[in-house]
Amino acid sequence: MNNNYKCGLYIRLSKEDEIKNNTDSESVSNQKELLVKYSKDNNYNVYDIYIDDGYTGTNFNRPGFNKMIEDIKNNKINMVIVKDLSRLGRDYIETGKYIEKWFPENNVRFISILDNIDTLLDNSNNEFIPFKTIINDFYSRENSKKIKAALRTKQLNGKWVGGCTPFGYMTDPKDKNHLIINKEEATIVKRIFDMALSTYSINKIINVLNEEKIKTPALFRNIKKNTLGCWNRTTIKTILKNELYTGNLVQNRRNKINYKIRKLKLNKKDDWIIIKNTHEKIIDEKDFEEVNRLLKLNGNTKSNKKNKTILDGVLYCGECKKKLIIQKNKNKKYLMCNTYKKYSKLKLCSSHSNNYLNVEKNVLSQLKKELDKIDINLLYKKIRINNKNNNTKELNIKIENNKNNLDNLYLDKLNNKIDEEMFNRLFIKINNEIDLLKKEISNYSYKPIDIKEEVVNSLININNNQFINKLIKRIEIHQDKTLDIYFNFKMI
Ligand SMILES: [Zn+2]
After folding, report:
1. Distance between CA 278 and CA 474 in Å, rounded?
2. How far is CA 330 from CA 306, 327, 333, 334, 351, in A?
3. How many A from CA of 343 to the centre of ligand 1?
4. pTM for this one?
5. Cystine design at 196: which of 181, 268, 291, 448 (Cβ 3.0–4.6 Å)?
6. Ligand 1 centre and the CA of 319: distance in Å?
7. How far is 417 from 134, CA to CA, in rounded Å?
8. What is the distance in A from the centroid of ligand 1 to the CA of 354?
9. pLDDT band at residue 126, thresholds of 50, 70 and 90?
10. How far is the CA of 478 from the centre of ligand 1 (A)?
11. Residue-range domains of the chain with CATH
């Protein structure tokens, strides 16, 4: 039976894993060794080994992974084996999507060795999948917090830690955390401020620069943008509003929305980290303030984009079972049965009119109650112990192997195959290896931490439509405004 499978072994190692695990247990060669041995022991035909070395698990855009998906689509493989779930990914929603949806839909059998997950066998471990991925997600969140904290310390010390340097500056070749002036670009920045000080409107500034065919920041930096190489309002305003030109380092202006989305959101001004006089100024503070006073007079209103509603796609009519639609009336959103709306004259269904926000509040509080019933701490402990047992199993095997090597070494010495010096060298080396492995086993102790509150809250607080779709199968709303919620997860 096993010969019907053509399998792909998937290996991932992120830079964080590499730094964190100085023990090497996650290393590419160790993962490979484990996967190859496992497929050999089980008689699986290995088609290819896909490796992503140096790629984070929070993002699925990895070359090895993409190649594997291609091979699945081309029917080259129909089985995927990983060491543990977090190798596949650390993003709850995306990982779940592959394991629960995409793999089954494409007839791919999925095995995660250390988690005892095999989608072919209907074992109870498969029910853990959603929660294991949640825990992995949680781990990423903790990691990203640590990275953020480290960046913050640097920012507070006046170190430049941004990616792309602001137009007019470049990083000091002697110190990458220090900005120095880029003369050619700085001249243009100065010119823009001068024009603004002479009360030129932004449009007038744009015209002058475009007529003189002055290169835009994007062209200077070779960034491809759909702006046809012309100056526009955003570019000018970004420059005029940037206090960095006065020699003060302004950082933490934007943050990633969360650890898995690359989009940035603007922070409140109170949260900006401003350190004075960290680099050479291009504009006097006085002039900067004057320009910004003028800008404010011209009135610049912020555009406020509204979030997509989080219950999109799970709302159904309790009577006709068809979809409920979300309608906007002035600033209020309300629900209505689609059948009623389409065929109101035929009276096939009633309106089911409901204030959307009330429904959302109600659903979230019920979801929280359901999640509260799950003993996440216990679950976390189980997963940790399960991982521990499997990891220590692996380590014990290695210790045994090393002991065998020692036996062989003695034999070789007795048979005069190796000399005294060689024997001593190998003897010490193997014994050191055994000591390291033993130490590693003792490191696998379970540290109880109270993560329940945080996990439940973060689940609730993710304003993410995909996430709700994952936890909730369907919500039926009846004409009398009562709700039936069908959850996607099982109680443990
Ligand atoms: Zn209806």
Report:
1. 55
2. 14, 10, 8, 11, 19
3. 10
4. 0.40
5. 291
6. 5
7. 54
8. 13
9. low
10. 8
11. 2-143 (3.40.50.1390), 157-297 (3.90.1750.20)
